[in-house]
Amino acid sequence: MSVALIASTADRRLLDESRGTRVMTWIMAIMLFLTVLAAALGLGTLGAAALLDRQLAGRLTVQIVEPVEAKRLDQAARALAALKSTREVTRATEVTPAKLATLLRPWLGSDAADPDLPIPAMIDVDLRVVDAAAVARVRAAVRQVAPSARIDRHESWMSPVRDFMAMVSWLAGGLVLLMAAATAAVVILAARAGLETHRATIEVLHMLGSTDVQVARLFQRRIALDTLLGGLLGTALALVTVGVIGWQLRALGSDLLAGLALSTRDWIVLGCLPIAFAVLATFAARQAVLGTLGKYL
User: Domain ABC3 transporter permease C-terminal, which positions (predicted)?
Assistant: First the structure.
């Protein structure tokens, strides 16, 4: 009896492998489709979280909330000069009233450009060193010349979003592991069912001198090919789905959602999933068959 990677015609006939597409192939296609979608969600969320961290790291917003316009403008000028002379600051730029009006227009409409509207003066700041001590020194330098200033770290008010992204990434990783465990369980059940179905044939093979390892190779080879074929089909459909979703996200024009785009490394990882699941199925089938043969046959 052959034990090569590709079964001979005689070996395939022994286990009825010539009956066309089996249910196992479609089960694996569904499993890999769901697994790739979950993995794509996790990888995309990780990429978006990393992009968010890079964009927000070391960024501050200084707001001058003095209600008197003359004092507000004077404190803004003093704060801007103090920031530019501070060693920890790499960039300090005052946000123009026109840009502030543009940012407020979605909420205030045409009233955002009203000169009588008391809009705080704002300064965008980038830090050279990102730590609490550097932020404290910058805050002290600004407060010394602008008592009404309020300093906000971008990381602090975006931390709930970052925490949510981390939760989604962990959830997606858990789903991938759960699908891998489910795949192994399905393979074990299929292998044991196959043993029962071909029990008489396997007993004849044993009488002819075949070993448990040779019989196990027949089953693991068949299950591995089913898993790989179904996995490739499910992965292809999932990648098309992910591509369509990514195209829709880019069309929305949102910087945050655009960060969910997958990198080249992510696409390679997704493409390797059917191979990984085929290896997992092969190992699970081998252990299931050898364990069952050792106990009952």
Answer: 175-287
Which is more confidently placed, 253 or 155?
Answer: 155
Place of tokens 């196992």: 24
Residue 286 lies in a domain: yes
Q: What is the pTM of this model?
A: 0.71
- pLDDT surpasses 60 at 14: no
Tokens of 19: 């009956």
What is the spatial distance between Cα 3 and Cα 198, in angstroms, rounded to a whole number?
Answer: 18
According to DSSP, the residues that pair with 93 across neighbouring strands are 124
What burial letters (b/e) apply to 267-278, b meaning 16+ CB within 10 Å?
A: eebbeebbeebb
DSSP class of residue 7? P
H helical segments located in 57-119: 69-84, 97-108
Which residues are CB-contacts of 276 (< 8 A; sequence separation ≥ 6)? none
In a domain, 153, yes or no: no
Tokens linked to 98 = 């026109």
The predicted structure's pLDDT at residue 56: 72
Verify that 71 and 140 share a domain, yes or no: yes
**Domain termination residue (choose one: 127, 147, 167):** 147
Q: What gap in Å lies between CA 14 and CA 191, rounded to an integer?
A: 15
> 166 is in which domain, residue-wise?
9-54+159-296
Q: Which residue, 147, 168, 198, sits at the end of a domain?
A: 147
Stronger pLDDT, 194 or 174, i.e. the higher one: 174
Q: What percent of the chain has pLDDT over 70?
A: 77
How many structural domains comprise the chain?
Answer: 2
- The phi, psi pair for 279, rounded to 5°, reads -65, -45
Query: How far, CA to CA in Å, does 161 sit from each of 55, 77, 125, 157, 198?
Result: 13, 33, 21, 8, 55
